[in-house]
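FW: tagging you since you asked about this chain on Friday. Here's the raw sequence from the shared folder, copied in full. Didn't touch anything.
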Amino acid sequence: MGWRPASLQARLSLLFVVLLLAVSGVYVFLLARSTEKYLAEDLQKRNRGLAASVAEVLEIDEATNEIPQATLRRTFDAAMVINPNIKLYLVGLDGRILTSSAEPGEVKLTRIPMAPVLAFVAATQPLPILGADPRNPAVARAFSAVRLNTRNGQPHCILYITLGGGVTADETASLRQSYILGLLLRTLTLAGGAALLVGLLLISFLTKNLHRLSTAVRRLQSGDFTTRVTGIRPGDELGELATAFNDMAARTEQALADLQSNDRLRRELVANISHDLRTPLASIEGYTETILLKQHLLTDTERQTYLQTILKNTRSLKRLVSELFELSKLEARQTVARPEPFSVTELVQDVLLKLEPEARVRAIELRASWDKDVPFVCADVGLIERVLQNLLDNALRYTPPGGQVVVAIAAPDAQQRIPLLVRDTGRGIAPTDLPHVFDRFYRSDQVREKSKDGLGLGLAIASRIVALHHSSLTVTSTEGTGTCFAFSLPVYAP
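HL: got it, structure written out here
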């Protein structure tokens, strides 16, 4: 998959890099703040008792109740010699700066906030506690403080010492901070680089599957309905999408195959209708012209023969048109079954009586068999009569003289349905034709050659009528032995 600036992979990669840089920046900022806080805490813990140590050498004069300036200056100077980075202040209980070790021009505050100082003296909150730096009010600084009491134990003032004082930071703290930040930044760089590499690889892997899907969609759009998505494992959203696409493509391919099959059947229908209607129409036209042109030359017997032929062809055309109209109504769901209770044995007997003359002419034995006390069924008697009529007509047409056609009625099954079977001893149906016997307009070449009438619609009509009764018309056949059609009807339950 090529890299394109506007591709999803490029956009996701750019977004990931931006997010990673933003997170890294926030991390560095928090790291710096945390390091400063840690150093301040460490500095304040190590110098927590500094103010108390200095206060031990400060004595308040009993007469004046004040610390002599000479003692104060001597103590301040000694402390500054030991640690030049500290500054000492005597602060009143109200926060007013009384005196300091700094030069007069360096002190920019006359009063400091007392809340942090009192919290430090009382040890009521964890370190670090940052206080004001009188020389640099904009910077909060770690400090040490202690309360100075008079001889009678009354609070006099507070010794306030700023730590790491001066404009230049403590070199040891700077080195320590530099080392810690350097180590953490190197760790961040390695972790960020690894995260960037893994993230880009994952984005490439995910977009590769999306590229497969988009390629398959484009191939399907271009007309390749056999395309399928491969290489995406199921189990996540992309896998489900790939499975859904493959199912959609399969359904589309099947729908296209059905459309092609229907188109082929439509062409066959036109050819069949043209063939099956042309012959009787030509016969009717020819015999009618003969009667009109030679009416004075024809004998009564010849005229009667011609008229009988015209009538036979007219009835054949009528039956073909009726079957086409009936099948179209069934397929359009315009035919609605009207169930009613009736005796299926009586219906079978009536149909057999109608077809008995034809069976006798063809020298075929036509009979029925059933058990005693067959219950009533609930179905549309007219439609079921049509089913039996079509099945028996089909059986008589393709059974040779001397054969048998039997209608069998079985006992009700576990679903309270009565099976009906129509068996014949005809030539059977070829295995290649068996799956298509219920297709509309389908007739095998063998049947087409030996059949003089019909469009092959009888079985299609019967199958759709049976479907209206929530059953299915099935067929079993062996070439040279015979064929059996079967369906079932529900038992009538008052």
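FW: The chain is about 50% helix and 15% strand.
HL: agreed, and The CA atoms of residues 38 and 128 lie 8 Å apart.
FW: great, closing this out.
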